[in-house]
Amino acid sequence: MSGTRPGPDDLAALLAGPVERVAPLLLGAVVSHAGVSIRLTEVEAYGGADDAGSHAHRGPTRRNATMFGPAGRLYVYLSYGLHVCANVVTGPEGSPGAVLLRAGEVVAGADEARSRRRTGVARDLARGPGRLGQALGLRLDLDGTDLLAPSTVTLQPGELVTSVERGPRVGLRGDAERPWRFWIADEPTVSAYRKAPPLGC
DNA sequence: CGACGGATGGGCT
DNA sequence: GCCCATCCGTCGG
């Protein structure tokens, strides 16, 4: 009982659980890199072999290796050849799980974030996983960064968020659909939900 | 505004 | 080759 403020040890304990329990607990947490800090307002949970929507669905590969590692690592991947997206790995080593950082509010370094983004609209600086990665200046070589040790990327737990809403994940269809998207209610920075395209048969 | 499609490159059937 | 855990500019109502 050394204090009321969450520290690194609490973060390790927080990330130890099953990914669908951890994900909503990361809402309100603050991610920082290269002069920009973002308070998370929207996240999604991704599991292992049983989750058809997860990169880890078909077992370990070079790209998704970080998802199979210990909790607290940053899993960074390239989306659509253009966008750098980031996840926080959860659960025990060997059982893949990660929380995709979908959107947030820039709480520090707004000028820096604006210089990296095309838009100047504050609300849109990190409204979407690709935008969030761009605002933070994330790069693929940051994949595997240990957030539980001193590093250029940091994650600090926020205060407990009371009004959490949940719904289906974005951009997936069919068997991949799960209500594993979580966001803070009434937050303008939550990314716009786009329905999955219909199957053309 | 909502809908639509092009950009763009790595991963994997 | 085809499929994306997306973004943004453009076009029509």
From TrEMBL:
Keywords: DNA damage, DNA repair, Glycosidase, Hydrolase. It comes from the Bacteria. Pfam families: Pur_DNA_glyco. SUPFAM superfamilies: FMT C-terminal domain-like. Its EC number is 3.2.2.-. GO terms for molecular function: hydrolase activity, acting on glycosyl bonds. Belongs to the DNA glycosylase MPG family. HAMAP family: 3MGH. This is Putative 3-methyladenine DNA glycosylase. It comes from Nocardioides kribbensis.
